[in-house]
Amino acid sequence: MDTDSTQNLPDVHGYSVTESTGTNPANLERVVPEEINVMLRVWLSYFKRWYVFHYFLGLLAMTLALVLAAEPKAGGIYSSYFSDYRETIGILSAIATGAVTFLRAQEKASSYTNAWRILNCAKIKYLYGGGTRSDLSDAYKQGEDAIQQCQ
Q1: Residues 6 or more apart in contact with residue 97 via CB below 8 angstroms
Q2: How far apart are alpha carbons 32 and 132 in whole angstroms?
Q3: In a domain, 3, yes or no
Q4: Exposure letters 80-111 (e unless 16+ CB within 10 A, then b)
Q5: What is the pLDDT of residue 122?
């Protein structure tokens, strides 16, 4: 095996990380437990889902409220159309606004990204020789605690 061989890891936020697979004693191969990699992927996935959900509901609520506020006055070409659906649009706007508030999607997205950052930092530290498996375990627990605070 070549002492300078490397293995490319997945792109994370536009940055490519390379893990050494050389046999040089000063640059020992560090293998991150698969459970840690799985949790990083899961937490990043949950962050993205809650983030998209937050903006979807927020934009929907805002758009529906704007449609109600901008309803053409009586005699306009669309006035009968809007009057037929005004109540439905108002109810949908209220539901979307309530869901954004009740589900706290932005807070949940933030908790998952914070958990991901804690564990990812520990993983990077571990890969470059500055951390132990115990540090990875502690970081996982801190990440779970960060998520739990939002639940």
Answers
A1: 61, 65
A2: 10
A3: no
A4: eeeeeeeeebeebbeebbebbeeeebbebbbb
A5: 95
Cα 33 to Cα 107: distance, rounded to the nearest angstrom: 29
Model confidence over 101-149: pLDDT tens digits? 999 999 999 999 999 999 999 999 999 888 899 999 999 999 999 999 9
Provide CB contacts within 8 A for 105, sequence distance 6+: 50, 51, 53, 54, 57
Rounded to whole angstroms, the Cα distance separating 42 from 48 reads 10
pLDDT in tens, 39-56: 999 999 999 999 999 999
DSSP assignment of 92-105 equals HHHHHHHHHHHHTH
Residue 57 within a domain: yes
The number of residues in the chain equals 151
Is the residue at 1 inside a domain? no
